[in-house]
Amino acid sequence: MTITTIPADLPLWRYYADRRALYRRLTFGDFAEALGIMVRIGVAADKADHHPEWTNVYNRLDIWLTTHDTGGVSERDHALARVIDAIVGPAAAG
Q: Which of 12, 19, 36, 94 is 20 to 30 A distant from 28 in Cα terms?
């Protein structure tokens, strides 16, 4: 089952219809800080066996969450978004 709405507990995320994905941009002080967060998110994602699509340019990290098996956003994406929010908090909002 795919989901196209953002739950109230994920206010920093957006739904991108063209990618059928949740999206959030994170901005940090420098590359080292962004890379450190990527590692923390990566470890959590690997434990959940659900991996983000992302790009990193210097201090910016763009993240898209989608479940390819279902062709869109699933509860797995919402769960990983919550984990990412817990790791970075609102301060990294881009």
A: 19
Q: How far is CA 93 from the centre of its chain?
A: 12
Say if residues 29 and 59 touch (Cβ distance below 8 Å).
Answer: yes
Our CA angle for 67, 77, 62, nearest 5°, is 95
Phi then psi for residue 60, to 5 deg, are: -110, 140
Dihedral angle, C-alpha 69, 73, 79, 85, nearest 10 °: 130
User: Nearest 5 degrees, angle CA 20-CA 16-CA 39?
Assistant: 85
Measured CA to CA, the distance from residue 41 to residue 2 in angstroms comes to: 23
**Residues 21, 53 contacting (CB under 8 angstroms):** yes
Tell me the pLDDT tens digit for each residue of 56-86: 999 999 999 999 888 899 999 999 999 999 9
Which domains does the chain possess? 14-92 (3.30.1360.20)
